[in-house]
UniProtKB/TrEMBL annotation:
The lineage of its organism: Bacteria, Bacillati, Bacillota, Clostridia, Lachnospirales. Phosphate binds at residues 21, 25, 44, 88-91. This is Purine nucleoside phosphorylase DeoD-type. The active site is at 204 (proton donor). It comes from Dorea ammoniilytica. Its EC number is 2.4.2.1. Homohexamer; trimer of homodimers. GO terms for molecular function: purine-nucleoside phosphorylase activity. It catalyses: a purine D-ribonucleoside + phosphate = a purine nucleobase + alpha-D-ribose 1-phosphate; a purine 2'-deoxy-D-ribonucleoside + phosphate = a purine nucleobase + 2-deoxy-alpha-D-ribose 1-phosphate; uridine + phosphate = alpha-D-ribose 1-phosphate + uracil. A purine D-ribonucleoside binds at residues 5, 179-181, 203-204. Keywords: Glycosyltransferase, Transferase. It comes from the Bacteria.
C-alpha cells in the first residue's frame, strides 16, 4: 500500500534497511554495493532501493534532515511496510576533543532537545536506546574493518544553527557528538518493538572547528556504509 511519501508496494522493501539522510547517498550505496537492484521510491526525490548484499536482501532509503522527517519515514517503513531492522547512517559533529574527524560514533543511546516523545504522554523522560544486538554486531564489524569507533551517547538536536554553545553542557555529561535524527528513530522503533541503531561518521569537530572536505566525506563515509552493510547482512 502506497503512502503520501512512498510508492512502494507490499513486499518491495526488505525487513532490514539502511537510512542515510541524503537520498543521493542512498543512491550511491545502492549502486555501489547492492546487486539485483530495484528502485521502489522517488517521491520528493527521496530515493529508495532494494537489492542484495552477500546474498542478503537489504533496502536503503533517504530520510531527509531532522526528527520530523525521520519520524515520517521510519513510522511508515515499520507500520506499513513491515521493516524490522532500521540502521541510520549519517554524519555528526564531535563534541569531545579526543574524537577525530573520520571516526565512527555508534549511538548506544540518544539524548534530545526535542519534544518528540510528548506524543506518548509519559509521566517522565524517555531514554531512547539502540538495539543491543545491532550495536554489538556493528562494533564487531568496525573492528574487522579496522575502523576507529566510539560507542556512547549522542545528542539528537532540533537545531543546526544555535545562538548559544549549549553543546558544552552535553559534553560535560559524556555525550560524544551531535546529530539530528536518532532520537525519533529510537522512539519509533521502541514503540513498535523493532530494532534500530544509529551509526555516524564524524564530519565536523564542534570543539575545534575542523571539518572534512567534500572528497574526504565521500571516501570516509564508505567505512560507515560497509559497517552498516555488514551489520545488516547478519540480521
Amino acid at each position: 500500500m502506497a503512502t503520501p511519501h512512498n510508492t512502494a508496494n507490499p513486499g518491495d522493501i526488505a525487513e532490514t534497511i539502511l537510512l542515510p539522510g541524503d537520498p543521493l547517498r542512498a543512491k550511491f550505496i545502492a549502486e555501489t554495493y547492492l546487486e539485483d537492484l530495484v528502485q521502489f521510491n522517488s517521491v520528493r526525490n527521496m530515493f529508495g532501493y532494494t537489492g542484495t548484499y552477500k546474498g542478503k536482501r537489504i533496502s536503503v532509503m533517504g530520510t531527509g534532515m531532522g526528527m520530523p522527517s525521520m519520524g515520517i519515514y521510519s513510522h511508515e517503513l515499520i507500520h506499513v511496510y513491515g521493516v524490522k531492522n532500521l540502521i541510520r547512517i549519517g554524519s555528526c559533529g564531535a563534541i569531545r576533543g579526543d574524537i577525530l574527524l573520520g571516526d565512527i560514533i555508534m549511538a548506544q543511546a540518544s539524548c534530545t532537545d526535542s519534544n518528540y516523545a510528548h506524543q506518548y504522554q509519559l509521566p517522565g523522560t524517555f531514554s531512547a536506546i539502540a538495539d543491543f544486538g545491532l550495536l554489538s554486531t556493528a562494533k564487531e564489524a568496525a573492528e574487522r574493518l579496522h575502523a576507529v569507533s566510539h560507542v556512547g551517547n549522542v545528542l539528537s538536536s532540533d537545531l543546526f544553527y544555535t545562538e548559544t554553545p549549549e553543546w558544552k553542557r552535553w559534553a560535560e555529561l559524556g555525550v560524544l557528538g551531535i546529530e539530528m535524527e536518532s532520537y525519533a528513530l529510537y522512539c519509533e522503533a521502541a514503540r513498535a518493538g523493532v530494532k534500530a541503531l544509529g551509526i555516524f561518521t564524524v564530519s565536523d569537530s564542534i570543539v575545534n572547528g575542523e571539518s572534512l572536505s567534500a572528497e574526504e566525506r565521500q571516501n570516509g563515509f564508505r567505512q560507515m556504509m560497509e559497517i552498516a552493510l555488514e551489520t545488516a547482512v547478519c540480521q
